[in-house]
Amino acid sequence: METDTVRQAYASVAELYIELFGTKQHVDADDLALIGRHLGSRPGRVLDLGCGPGHLTGYLRELGVDAMGIDLVPEFIAHARASHPGVEFHLGSMERLDVAEDSIDGILAWYSLIHLPPPEFDGMLKEFRRVLVPAGRLVLGVFDAEDVGAFDHKVLTAYRWPVDEVSERLGRAGFREVERLRRPGTDEHRPLAAIAAVAV
User: Fold this and answer.
1) What value, to the nearest 5°, has the Cα angle with vertex 57 and ends 32 and 90?
2) Which listed residue, 25, 53, 115, 169, has the most CB atoms within 10 A of its CB?
3) pTM greater than 0.85
4) Which residue from 93, 105, 159, 95 is spatially nearest to 127, judged by alpha carbons?
5) Are strands 104-110 and 132-144 parallel, antiparallel or unpaired?
6) Contact between residue 104 and residue 129 where contact means Cβ atoms under 8 Å apart
7) Tell me: the pLDDT tens digits for 134-189?
8) How is the chain split into domains, by residue range?
9) Using a CB cutoff of 8 Å and minimum separation of 24, what contacts does 87-96 make?
10) What is the DSSP code string of 144-163?
């Protein structure tokens, strides 16, 4: 993933993005419930990777989780820190996690892998598994489709994934799926899917 390209693309629309998506009220109740079920009671640190404006990091903290947000975009991190005082946010890339092996209890990657080219997807899942403790949880969201493919996302080229293939790739990376959530497309929204998985 060209991190500089992603950073610049989101920085150019950061104000609008925050307005449209920057609070937990913009998140579907079923999605919040899924995140809460699998990450809301983790006893150790949880990373919100690609945290954007920080609303889901803040939500996890409301649930009592030791959550930390990481994002590439300075504008998002500045907003997150201002909106969620007392919550830890860092500017950085999920591709270069400065985290020891088996040290993190949970990871939220909520649509933060959508710009990752398919050849890099497995490597990212393996990096997630590297830092998670055994039985740690991963929750990720993707654009759902019958086949892997690129599409013109409003910010930058993104990729759709068949949810069954995501589950298979998770298995090869050292995870086991424990729950999935799918939402069909509408006139306004593309089909979506989320998977919760446990590190094995």
Assistant:
1) 155
2) 53
3) yes
4) 95
5) parallel
6) no
7) 999 999 999 999 999 999 888 889 999 999 999 999 999 999 999 999 999 887 78
8) 3-199
9) 87/54, 87/57, 87/58, 87/61, 89/51, 89/54, 89/57, 93/3, 94/49, 94/50, 94/70, 94/124, 94/127, 95/1, 95/3, 95/124, 95/127
10) E-SS-EEE--SSS-EEEE-H
Instruction: Give the CATH architecture of domain 3-199.
Output: 3-Layer(aba) Sandwich (3.40)
Q: Are 150 and 4 in contact (CB under 8 A)?
A: no
Pairing between strand 192-199 and 132-144?
antiparallel
Polymer length of the chain: 200
Apex CA 25: angle with CA 23 and CA 29, to 5°?
Answer: 130
Contacts of residue 190, defined as CB under 8 A and 6 or more positions apart, other chains included, come to 143, 144, 151, 160
- Which helix H or strand E contains 77, and what residues bound it? helix 74-83
Three-state DSSP state, 172: helix
Sign of the dihedral defined by the CA atoms of residues 187, 26, 49, 181, in that order: negative
User: In the block, which residue shows the tokens 């860092």?
Assistant: 90
Return d(Cα 10, Cα 16) in angstroms, integer. 10
Which CA distances in Å does 153 have to 76, 92, 114, 116?
A: 19, 22, 9, 13
pLDDT digits (tens, 9 = 90+) for 175-199: 999 999 999 988 778 899 999 999 9
